[in-house]
Predict the 3D structure of the following.
Amino acid sequence: MSSDDSVTDGDQPGDPAPPGEKYCAECGSIINEKAEICPECGVRQPGMGSGGDERLVTALLAILLGSFGAHKFYLGENKVGVIYLCFFWTGIPGIIGIIEGVIYLSKSDEEFRRQYLED
Ligand SMILES: [Zn+2]
């Protein structure tokens, strides 16, 4: 398994793929959303193998460093992260972080990807 952890967007066409399908990261063909390997070009789709790692990392960040919004910065939600930072002294973001961490852990890798990584 040589999965590349870096999820890079930008090459993909602007239009959203039809429901249940997605664009191949390599050749741009429309393929099944759950396909790990593109049938057209045979390239493994980024993130399919590493979504679980991202989910675990985000959950750990939320539980351990949730007070500082670390998981929000990790997900690219910088504005929300700053709000967490501003209120970390109240302890509330820390509590929310733990709850969010548990939610991340309770989701499947695919659910997590769809909800938090593919915006
Ligand atoms: Zn392809």
Observations:
- The two ends are 26 Å apart (CA to CA).
- The chain has two domains: 1-46, 51-117.
- Residues 24, 26-27, 29, 38, 40-41, 43 surround zinc ion (CB under 6 Å).
- The first strand starts at residue 21 and ends at 23.
